[in-house]
Each structure stands twice: as structure tokens, then as C-alpha cells.
């Protein structure tokens, strides 16, 4: 349990207090209840960290993992842990999984200092990995095997089931053309999933936006500036889709908090 970190400072909060599952200590750190998260019928929540100039990944093959952008921003890992603990499923892209094969995908392991607090409220979460190619490494954490699902193509499933630790039971083959809406319906029907947290990367966020499935965006804004030049290809928050100002998604800020350096934004769409 953490008792020495100060709470976040609330600058704006118009979220509903209903449905919050945080313990008193976690509510103290968050400076209030987390509020309702969208149900799987409504869509998904997304949680990412971005630089001031909008960068969330250093390249299309090199996600940041957040640590490089948050510096010593302990509250960012704490909030991510609270969100993971409040959802039935965590959704990531194949690039993210390949980049962090030993990734700490549970709420309590991601923020060890709050292990007990988060473990007490955490749901038995499912890790959903989106991979068209099926190019994934062996699962290095045995505890992850019963609760990981690879969503892929027929070719991807054939490739993946030849990799040690993966099996047919751990693969879901979605028909073409791929639909995230159909996937969410499948997860609700076959796995009893009630809400999903997407943590990227940018291509996954873009695909979810394309189907208008992101209801709440939790975005940690770092004061860091990375920039771009002709020799680099950092990825912004959304990749694979673009809008004109006429039809671009335009949300409502429902929560703004700060730890004095990072901004914690919640935007409803």
C-alpha cells in the first residue's frame, strides 16, 4: 500500500461517481472515484501517454511503454493500474506484445507499490492481443497462459500455433473483413467480458476510432517534446486514419487532474 504519495490535484471532474470500484486509498490517490467506464456494448476505454507534441511511440516498431515519456511520473503507473483493475479485458496490438514479451500485463504487477490495493479490486482480466500476421513470441509468463487470447487471421493462427506455449484454444480467428465491433460482441458472448481497456499502440487506436468504438480516452500528457525530422518516424496518438475538421471526433473533457507535472485527461466521445 502507498501512504506517502500525495493525491492528484483535480482541476475538472464531471464524471459519474457510480460504478467506481476503487478502495479508499486508491480514491485518495486519484482524488476521487474513477466513475463509470463504458460497457462493451457502448465501446471501449483507451489509455495512453503522449508527449506535448502528440508522440506516443518512437516508431512503428518501437513503442515507448510510457516510462520514457513519464520520467518519474509515478501517478501514471498508478492510474494505469486502477484502469486495468477496473476492466475485464486489456487489449493491445501485436507490436506492443512483441516489444514487451515479459510485460507486466496485470494491474498489480504494473504498479508493484500498489500491489495489494489493486489485487483486492482487480477482475480476472483477459489479455487480448490483435495480430493479423500471427508473428508473436512464446509466452514467457506461465501465469498468463490461461488468460491470453490472440485475435488473428487463418494464416496468423496457423503460424502462431506452431510457436511454443501457444495453442488453438488461445486463438480467435475473425472473418474477413475484420470488425472490432464483431470482436467485442464475441468477447461479451463467449467470455462474459463487460468492459475493455485498450492500451495501443497508435494503429489499434486508429482502428477502434474507425469503427467509432472509443468512448473514453484516458490520456496522460507529458511536457516532453520529441519532434520529427526526415530520419525519424515517431507515431502520434492515432495512426492509419485521418479526418477533416468537419467530421473529426470531438470529445468532451470530463476529468482533468495533475500531479504537478503530468496532466491526466479523460475525454468522452
The proportion of residues forming helix, as a percent range, comes to 25-40%
Structural class: alpha/beta
Mean of pLDDT: 89
Which CATH architecture is right? Answer: 3-Layer(aba) Sandwich
User: What's the N-to-C terminus distance?
Assistant: 34 Å
User: Taking strands numbered 1, 2, ... along the chain, how are they ordered across the largest sheet?
Assistant: 1-12-13-10-2-9-5-6-7-8
Q: Proportion of β residues?
A: 15-25%
Shape: globular
CATH T-level topology: Dihydrofolate Reductase, subunit A
- The rounded Rg comes to 18 Å
Largest sheet: 10 strands, mixed
Query: Could you give the count of β-strands?
Result: 13
Counting structural domains, the number is 1
User: What is the CATH domain class?
Assistant: Alpha Beta
- Compute the number of helices: 9
Low-confidence stretches: none
Q: What's the CATH H-level homologous superfamily? A: Dihydrofolate Reductase, subunit A
* H/E element order: EHEEEHHEHHHEEHEHEHEEEE
Polypeptide structure, described:
The protein has 269 residues and is α/β, with parallel strands linked by helices. It has one domain (37-268): Dihydrofolate Reductase, subunit A (3-Layer(aba) Sandwich), CATH 3.40.430.10. It has helices at 24-30, 67-70, 74-85, 94-99, 107-110, 115-121, 154-160, 180-191, 202-210, and strands at residues 9-13, 44-50, 55-59, 62-63, 89-93, 126-130, 148-152, 171-173, 196-198, 214-221, 235-236, 252-258, 263-268. The strands form 2 sheets. Strands 1-12-13-10-2-9-5-6-7-8 form a 10-stranded mixed sheet. A hairpin with a 2-residue loop joins β3 (55-59) and β4.
Amino acid at each position: 500500500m502507498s501512504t506517502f504519495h500525495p493525491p492528484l490535484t483535480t482541476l475538472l471532474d464531471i464524471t459519474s461517481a457510480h460504478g467506481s470500484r476503487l478502495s479508499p486509498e486508491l480514491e485518495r490517490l486519484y482524488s476521487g472515484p474513477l466513475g463509470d467506464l463504458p460497457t462493451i456494448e457502448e465501446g471501449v476505454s483507451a489509455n495512453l501517454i503522449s508527449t506535448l507534441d502528440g508522440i506516443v511511440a518512437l516508431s512503428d516498431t518501437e513503442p515507448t511503454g510510457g516510462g520514457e515519456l513519464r520520467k518519474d511520473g509515478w501517478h501514471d503507473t498508478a492510474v494505469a493500474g486502477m484502469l486495468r483493475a477496473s476492466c475485464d479485458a486489456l487489449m493491445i496490438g501485436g507490436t506492443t506484445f512483441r516489444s514487451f514479451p515479459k510485460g507486466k500485463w496485470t494491474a498489480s504487477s504494473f504498479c508493484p507499490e500498489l500491489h495489494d490495493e489493486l489485487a483486492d479490486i482487480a477482475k480476472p482480466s483477459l489479455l487480448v492481443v490483435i495480430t493479423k500476421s500471427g508473428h508473436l513470441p512464446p509466452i514467457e509468463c506461465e501465469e498468463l497462459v490461461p488468460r491470453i487470447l490472440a485475435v488473428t487471421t487463418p494464416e496468423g493462427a496457423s503460424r502462431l500455433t506452431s510457436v511454443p506455449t501457444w495453442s488453438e484454444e488461445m486463438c480467435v480467428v475473425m472473418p474477413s473483413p475484420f470488425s472490432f465491433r464483431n470482436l467485442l460482441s464475441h468477447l461479451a458472448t463467449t467470455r462474459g467480458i463487460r468492459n475493455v481497456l485498450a492500451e495501443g499502440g497508435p494503429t489499434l487506436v486508429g482502428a477502434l476510432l474507425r469503427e467509432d468504438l472509443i468512448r473514453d480516452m484516458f490520456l496522460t500528457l507529458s511536457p516532453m517534446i520529441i519532434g520529427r525530422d526526415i530520419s525519424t518516424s515517431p507515431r502520434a496518438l492515432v495512426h492509419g486514419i485521418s479526418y477533416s475538421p468537419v467530421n473529426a471526433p470531438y470529445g468532451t473533457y470530463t476529468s482533468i487532474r495533475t500531479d504537478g507535472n503530468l496532466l491526466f485527461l479523460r475525454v468522452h466521445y
